[in-house]
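G., the chain you wanted modeled:
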Amino acid sequence: MDIGKKRRLNRIFGKDGKSVIVPMDHGVTIGPVEGLADMQQTIDKLVEGGADAIVIHKGTANYVDTGKMGLIIHLSGSTRVGPDPNWKVQVCSVTQALKLGADGISIHVNMGAPQEPYMLERMGKIVDEASKYGLPLLAMMYPRGPNIKSEHDPEHVKHAARLGAELGADIIKTNYTGSIESFREVVKGCPVPVIIAGGPKTKNSAEFLRMVYDSIQAGGAGVSIGRNVFQHKNPTAMVKALKAIVHEKATVEEALKILGEKE
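Predicted structure as tokens:
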């Protein structure tokens, strides 16, 4: 592996090869929702909690201090009110991400969407450019489209994860499939680290942490979770709870104690 890429990956992943990443790129898609109105205030809470890395857009990266967290610049964008929200277009260049001090970049591909061919073509070009600079790529790979009945279907998720790896991604972010057994198949079929997305905000912390715990038991390499972290009443404590599960092999019950909650 390129020494530059190795160093950057070490700033995103812990020594155990796992990572707690908090994406805060939602402002492009859904606007300044709760937890994103004051980006620096929320980021400070994530830094205090010890998150490994953060995902933000280039504009935000110009004015926030991300502390010791690894910086991942998101290159994809679309809005929920656009003509096709599932069509993610490139909104930042690899070189611009490097100028902003990025440790990595991320892109979003919706497998099964009508514009899938365009997104795959862009991904191929971005991978080639990123490799020139030793810049790690996190690919958010989701099965979404007319032929996808469930975004959590193990067969579709397994395919999406493998697709991202086949095209050169260094890290795959995708949906949890609902069980340890099925997600183990996703991990088994993907030659690069797989981390899970959080999806919509869950009903309670126990349900959320159970999903995270199960994904780690299945061989997952961590999480890239936004709303269930930055919209939690105590984002700092939530990051610490996630770190306990991902890095310290804590149980759900032990993680809940960090939050001061019960199952």
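Residues 3-197 form a domain with the TIM Barrel fold (CATH 3.20.20.70).

Shout if anything looks off.
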